[in-house]
Specification:
Elements lengths: L3 H7 L10 H11 L6 E5 L12 E2 L9 E2 L3 E4 L10 E9 L13 E5 L11 E4 L3 E4 L2 E4 L10 E2 L10 E3 L7 H9 L4 E5 L3 E7 L3 E2 L10 E2 L2 H11 L3 E8 L3 H12 L4 E5 L10 H8 L1 E6 L2 E2 L3 E7 L2 E6 L3 H19 L10 E5 L10 E10 L5 E5 L9 H5 L2 E5 L11 E6 L5
Parallel strand pairs: 5-6, 13-16, 13-17, 14-15, 17-21, 19-23, 22-24
Antiparallel strand pairs: 1-12, 2-11, 3-10, 4-6, 4-7, 5-9, 8-9, 18-20, 20-21, 22-26, 23-24, 23-25, 25-26
The structure holds adenosine monophosphate and magnesium ion.
The site of adenosine monophosphate has 18 residues, from loops.
Length: about 425
């Protein structure tokens, strides 16, 4: 495990008072380490987990050449340019069955989708494309080429080849693929354990009566949801009041047997409270000013063996910093090799003010325009406390560090929420 000072010394131009978004991600990727323990789970428990070993295909899929259509299997060597081909139907073959007999020249076999191709036959004519006359069918000239409508042995997966790689996040498609190989159990990395709490004397827990100047804690619920979607084991530690003894107890307890601690609030420059003091006292922690909006202040480091993500207090800033920094870091800790989903381009329906020298994340509603291309509109008030904007939006408009103002009609980068939050 590297200390923060070691990582800082490795990075060129590291300045905790003015870090770029990409600088933060570089730092984080050096701070966190993937878990090393693995466990074996059944296929239903494997959804959302990360493969700890390559999966080598024990069989070929499909195991035989087979028909991709309901139709007639025949030997395409009999096709002659410009001439229709007439064949006699010698029998019928169902899905999963084979044809034990020889098929003579001039014959074909009526075949269902998935049935094994009889030996010597290489092509299937779909049944709707033939004309039939008693026991015979005719295939018009120029309709087919050899090999049409035949699935090849191993065209999906070949026996002995890696079907899935270590680090693969097990999606519904990956579960189906495992099942297609007859695999019921897989080795996955253990789940991450993540503790989180909110700080601030003005923060109310649900169930407490409202009082003037106080706000209900929303961050714990967004963080809970974001972590759960990532497949982490979560430990909710509630709201911790701004008292040294309470904060010390919370940080100490959170660091026991967890991989990460996420807090919100108490890390901005003007904060008079004890959160930062306690982080500094108990861990190896840096306090950053990040060139971004929302989400400027953040604390990062380690308390015991747990990575600390000290997020700002504002509800939108919590979500944006989670998506920009915490999520990629946790995926790395989970052993996932998934890379960030690609940004899409959409036409901005309005002019946007943007200061060069920081990355801005505006909440956007992306839709399909009349010409079929993507367009985006902001959700209005972009205040970092306006959580309704995150609910209304279906993506973030990501305005790059160097970029200036955006004119209506310009293309902007979009990070879609689908599959992420
Ligand atoms: P701070 O970073 O502690 O200065 O907080 C910035 C703003 O976010 C303040 O208006 C806080 O009241 C608000 N805030 C902090 N924590 C939470 C929370 N858990 N839920 C909702 N709002 C919060
Ligand atoms: Mg505060």
């Amino acid at each position: 495990m590297k200390t923060l000072a070691t990582i800082a010394a490795e990075l060129q131009g590291y300045d905790p008072q003015a870090l770029s978004v990409s600088g933060v991600n570089t730092f984080m990727s050096r701070l966190v380490e993937p878990v090393t323990a693995q466990e074996t789970v059944g296929i239903f428990q494997a959804l959302g987990r990360v493969l700890a070993q390559d999966v080598i295909s024990p069989i070929s899929v499909p195991a035989h050449d087979n028909s991709a259509m309901d139709g007639y299997a025949f030997d395409a060597a009999q096709l002659k340019p410009g001439v229709a081909l007439t064949l006699t139907v010698a029998g019928t073959l169902r899905a999963g069955a084979g044809w034990p007999h020889r098929v003579e020249p001039g014959q074909c076999i009526k075949i269902m989708t998935g049935a094994i191709m009889p030996s010597g036959l290489d092509t299937v004519v779909p049944q709707e494309l033939v004309t039939s006359d008693g026991p015979n069918i005719a295939i018009a000239a120029g309709l087919l080429r050899a090999g049409d409508n035949r699935r090849q042995l191993g065209e999906d997966l070949m026996q002995g080849q890696p079907a899935l790689r270590q680090g693969q996040l097990l999606t519904p498609a990956a579960l189906g693929l495992l099942a297609s190989l007859g695999i019921e159990q897989v080795a996955v990395w253990r789940k991450l354990r993540v503790a989180y709490f909110s700080t601030g004397d003005e923060i109310l827990s649900l169930g407490q009566p409202p009082r003037e100047g106080a706000v209900y804690d929303s961050n714990r619920y967004t963080v809970f949801g974001l972590l759960s979607r990532l497949g982490c084991e979560v430990i909710d530690m509630g709201v911790v009041r701004d008292e040294p003894a309470l904060l010390e107890a919370a940080f100490t307890q959170a660091a026991l047997q967890t991989d990460a601690i996420i807090t919100s609030g108490g890390v901005s420059v003007g904060e008079a409270d004890y959160t930062k003091l306690m982080m500094k006292k108990l861990g190896d922690v840096a306090f950053w000013k990040i060139a971004m909006r929302p989400g400027r202040p953040m604390a990062v480091g380690r308390i015991g063996n747990a990575v600390l993500f000290g997020l700002p207090g504002n509800p939108v800033a919590v979500m944006v910093t989670f998506l920009a920094f915490v999520r990629p870091a946790l995926l790395q800790m989970m052993g996932s090799t998934a890379t960030a989903p690609p940004l899409l381009k959409a036409r901005s329906l309005e002019a946007l003010r943007k200061k060069p020298g920081r990355t801005e994340y505006q909440r956007g509603t992306v839709s399909t325009g009349a010409d079929g291309s993507l367009q985006v509109r902001t959700t209005g008030n972009q205040g970092s406390g306006v959580l309704s904007s995150m609910v209304q939006a279906n993506g973030l408009i990501v305005l790059a560090h160097k970029q200036g103002d955006v004119a209506a009609g310009d293309l902007v980068n979009i990070m879609m929420f689908e599959g992420v939050i």
